[in-house]
Design goal:
This protein is α/β, with parallel strands linked by helices. The chain has two domains: 29 residues; 157 residues, Glutaredoxin. It contains five helices and eight strands; from the N terminus they run αββββαβαβαββα. The strands form two sheets. The chain has a six-stranded mixed β-sheet. Strand 7 and strand 8 form a beta hairpin. Helix 2 packs across helix 5. The chain is globular, with a radius of gyration of 17 Å. It comes from Halovenus aranensis.
């Protein structure tokens, strides 16, 4: 007798596959067990390709890439409609106020419905003074390849530290300003 394929069974099977993938040969997110990644995610000493993708700051229209920044970067993936993301941005604002001259803060939307005008309005309405950009598809793919699908789910609101050498560290959801600063001191300074 053939077993009926329900959505639940498919999801359970997918979850089991993902769990097994995590058990065989380490994490599937390109990092070691504590979330730290010592390189660009490909086993080399060079930054991941997504770090070289050209972004446009929605607040200034300036073009830049993460790889061009010569100081630590705090990268946050988000969507303008996401309340979890706004809470995380409150912590980013505190960290930015204390470290904005020594660290570059970048919020990239992974929601294809957000556009630069949405980002500009979001930053202005909330008093955020750091960079905001729309993540091009190739950047989102690169982030997902390195950190897993979670990075492209706005309510997960991940924060990633990128050191000037291109090494990365993914922080837990809901990270505080002091936790961001500690991670920067431990990994990039």
């Amino acid at each position: 007798m053939t077993e009926k394929r329900t959505r639940r069974r498919v999801l359970l099977a997918a979850g089991a596959t993902a769990a097994l993938a995590g058990c065989i040969g380490g994490g599937s997110d390109g990092s070691d067990s504590d979330g730290a990644d010592t390189n660009g995610g490909d086993g080399s000493d060079t930054p991941a390709e997504w770090q070289s993708v050209t972004l446009t700051d929605a607040t200034t229209d300036e073009e830049f890439s993460i790889a061009e920044v010569d100081q630590p970067v705090v990268l946050h993936t988000f969507a303008t409609w996401c309340s979890t993301c706004r809470r995380q941005q409150g912590s980013l604002a505190d960290a930015y106020d204390r470290n904005g001259d020594e660290v570059t803060f970048v919020d990239v939307t992974i929601d294809e419905n957000d556009d630069p005008d949405d980002l500009r309005s979001h930053a202005e309405e909330n008093g955020f003074g750091w960079r905001f950009a729309v993540a091009p598809a190739e950047m989102t793919r690169g982030l997902v390849d390195q950190f897993g699908q979670r990075v492209a789910v706005a309510p997960q609101s991940p924060v990633i530290l990128i050191c000037p050498d291109g090494s990365t560290t993914e922080l837990d959801k809901g990270v505080s300003a002091s936790e961001i600063e500690s991670a920067l001191d431990e990994n990039c300074r």
